[in-house]
Amino acid sequence: MTLQFDLSHRRVLITGAGQGVGRGLADAFAAADATVLVNDLRRERAEAVAAELRDAGGDAMAVPFDVTDYPAVTEAITQAGPVDILVNNAGNAGAEGFAARMPFAESTPADWDPFLQVNLYGVLHCTRAALPAMVERQWGRVVTIVSDAGRTGDASGAVYAAAKAGAAGLTRSIALENGRYGITANNIALGTMRTPLTEPLWAEMADSPQAKAILSRYPIRRPGLPEDLAYLAVLLASDHGSWITGQTLPVNGGYSFAM
């Protein structure tokens, strides 16, 4: 039996697809012949990725918007047309590189807001905007990229962990409410990833005490790459994944295990 992913009749919206994990997801969905709606906060990044996918023979369009702005989200998704598959990928672990870490007892609401707005409210906004049309068409997929921090907790990163756990809980609730309409909803929980934002940490990995300390907690001693999770997302979005819903599937190099 040959396992093939054919999404040629599906349209996928990937948030935060202008670089890093989101760009890897865009490449994988394009390889499965889906029409890829490339979202990014920065228009130029979304347009560049969409153009590169088209140049490679894919079908793609840029859909730039800020996931924290609900009116902008709803307007952009309405204008973009039907969304069969929503991949909630846009996230924020810190404005630049790794977040400034602090015990929760030393934090303030001003420190919490960026993490809650992107990692939780961004998922709420996009899912709320895309879901009604999926219900109407009696078919849909929601894949939310979360973090192992939301599964295990994160010392000195409590609000980020809380936001990711909240997004995962939302996705499970969407699975419960909408399975009857042919809609599945699942989470992919990531460990530490190598992306453009974190590249300064990994550039001199062999000589970096911080990188060595991070990777010592992983049985597979390397950071994750976008392609490590991309085809799992495609599987969940395909007809082959039609009986998988409400799950949180770790892709984390063994950082934490799940039954």
Description:
- There is one protein chain.
- This protein is an alpha/beta fold and 259 residues long.
- The protein has one domain (11-196, 225-251): Rossmann fold (3-Layer(aba) Sandwich), CATH 3.40.50.
- The chain is 44% helix and 14% strand.
- It has nine helices and seven strands; from the N terminus they run βαβαβαβαβααβαααβ.
- It has helices at 20-31, 43-55, 70-80, 109-137, 149-152, 158-178, 199-202, 209-215, 226-237, and strands at 11-14, 35-38, 59-62, 85-88, 140-147, 183-190, 248-251.
- The protein has a seven-stranded parallel beta sheet with strand order 3-2-1-4-5-6-7, with helices on both faces.
- The longest helix is centred in the middle third of the chain and has 29 residues, at 109-137.
- The model has no long low-confidence stretch (mean pLDDT 93).
- Keywords: Cell wall, Oxidoreductase, Secreted.
- One of its GO terms (biological process) is monocarboxylic acid metabolic process.
- It comes from Mycobacterium syngnathidarum.
- It catalyses: a (3R)-hydroxyacyl-[ACP] + NADP(+) = a 3-oxoacyl-[ACP] + NADPH + H(+).
- Belongs to the short-chain dehydrogenases/reductases (SDR) family.
Which CATH C-level class is it?
Alpha Beta
Largest sheet: 7 strands, parallel
Strand order of the largest sheet: 3-2-1-4-5-6-7
The geometry reads as globular
Counting structural domains, the number is 1
**Beta fraction:** 5-15%
Mean of all residue-level pLDDT scores: 93
- Unreliable runs, pLDDT <50, ≥5 residues? none
Q: Tally of extended strands?
A: 7
What share of the residues lie within helices?
40-55%
Quote the distance from N terminus to C terminus. 28 Å
Radius of gyration: 18 Å
The CATH homologous superfamily is termed NAD(P)-binding Rossmann-like Domain
Treating each run of at least 4 consecutive H or I residues as one helix, how many helices? 9
**Run of helices and strands:** EHEHEHEHEHHEHHHE
Structural class: alpha/beta
CATH structural architecture: 3-Layer(aba) Sandwich
What is the CATH topology assignment? Answer: Rossmann fold
Organism: Mycobacterium syngnathidarum
GO molecular function: 3-oxoacyl-[acyl-carrier-protein] reductase (NADPH) activity
Family: Belongs to the short-chain dehydrogenases/reductases (SDR) family.
Keywords: Cell wall, Oxidoreductase, Secreted
